[in-house]
Amino acid sequence: MKDKVAVVTGGARGIGKAICEKLARQGCNVVVSDIDGDGAKTTAKELEALGISAIGVAANVADADQVKAMVKETIDVFGRVDILINNAGITRDSLIMRMSEADWDLVIQINLKGAFLCTKAVIRPMMKQRSGKIINVASVIGRMGNAGQANYAASKAGMIGLTQSTAKEVAARNIQVNAIAPGFIQTEMTQDLGKEVIDAYLESIPAKRAGTPDDVANVTAFLASTASDYVTGQVINIDGGLLIA
Ligand SMILES: NC(=O)c1ccc[n+]([C@@H]2O[C@H](COP(=O)([O-])OP(=O)(O)OC[C@H]3O[C@@H](n4cnc5c(N)ncnc54)[C@H](O)[C@@H]3O)[C@@H](O)[C@H]2O)c1
What we know:
The chain is an alpha/beta fold. The protein has one domain (5-238): 3-Layer(aba) Sandwich (Rossmann fold). It has 9 helices and 7 strands, in the order βαβαβαβαβααβαααβ. It has helices at residues 14-25, 37-48, 64-78, 101-129, 141-144, 150-170, 188-191, 195-204, 213-224, and strands spanning 5-9, 29-34, 54-58, 83-86, 132-137, 175-182, 235-238. A 7-stranded parallel sheet has the order 3-2-1-4-5-6-7, sandwiched between helices. It is globular and about 50 Å long. 47% of the residues are buried. Nicotinamide-adenine-dinucleotide binds at residues 9-10, 12-16, 34-36, 39, 60-62, 87-90, 110, 114, 137, 139, 182, 184-185, 187-190.
């Protein structure tokens, strides 16, 4: 991946940061984009120690102008964009009868609309280049649902539809669009789930362990590489067997 340029949203920490590191170790230059601009810049500095070029850019994926500015900065600095990882995401869990409209809207806007806005912003330069890789970080919850996560599950199921439709639109331009569906991964997003919820997850995972951000980054790196050039519109579970269907 030497001299390729990847944009990773939500790249400041967690799964996004692990993806940034994996791509950087393979020679990719990285744009770390995050609503936490300081975190993005700190991660970018750490990546440069790996011998590649990296920049940290503050951007809220749910804001079209901020997304356009982030992609413009990418093109201004690196001249191209080869890989987009739509990783930024949040949860606002509650049972549907208690779920506020605001929490519904926020999760859909960041997780689903954010992926749409970022895809739209990179698709023209990728089409001109006649190459590109877009990887949407969905979730097994988008494929199986989860009590207390109707907004999150709907956003992640929506990302799968977005993946499949975009894949069909751009396949002839040599742009591959795939989704990954992580299961239960140890990050700050999951650390506050109660012990009972965590134990229930561990019990239902055939591999009997939580996943690591690195488990997710390994599969993402494959989808970002030329090794996956004939793979498009797919969803790959990374879940230790949690969802086998
Ligand atoms: N941790 C899991 O078990 C798990 C499982 C399946 C899917 N996922 C998905 O993986 C992705 C990363 O999750 P994580 O566990 O690393 O979470 P995390 O909370 O540790 O990191 C998310 C990152 O996204 C950033 N972010 C949040 N809102 C943003 C916005 N509006 N614009 C730009 N950046 C924003 C945050 O600042 C943070 O750096 C998410 O899309 C999540 O839904 C996580």
